């Protein structure tokens, strides 16, 4: 089920990049939450 035309492939890459960015933001958010809750980090 590989996308034949490059437009679909580019869209799939954009979705993957957006998910990666979202994951990085989520990790930073969780780390900052833990730091603020723990206090002595």
Characteristics:
single chain, 41 residues, mainly alpha, 1 helix, rod-shaped
Could you characterize what this model shows?
This protein is mainly alpha-helical and about 40 residues long. It has one domain. It contains one helix and no strands. The radius of gyration is 17 Å and the shape is rod-shaped. The mean pLDDT is about 85.
The main pleated sheet reads as: none
Instruction: Count helical runs.
Output: 1
Beta content comes to under 5%
The average pLDDT score comes to: 86
Number of domains as seen in the coordinates: 1
Amino-to-carboxy terminus distance: 47 Å
User: Pairing-aware structural class of the strands and helices?
Assistant: mainly alpha
* Fraction of residues in helix: over 70%
Secondary structure: number of strands: 0
Output the helix-strand order.
Answer: H
| Low-confidence runs of at least 5 consecutive residues | none
Radius of gyration: 17 Å
Q: Any idea what the shape is?
A: rod-shaped
């Amino acid at each position: 089920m590989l996308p034949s035309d490059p437009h679909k492939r580019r869209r799939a890459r954009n979705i993957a990049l957006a998910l990666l960015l979202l994951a990085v933001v989520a990790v930073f958010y969780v780390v900052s939450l833990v730091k603020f809750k723990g206090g002595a980090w």
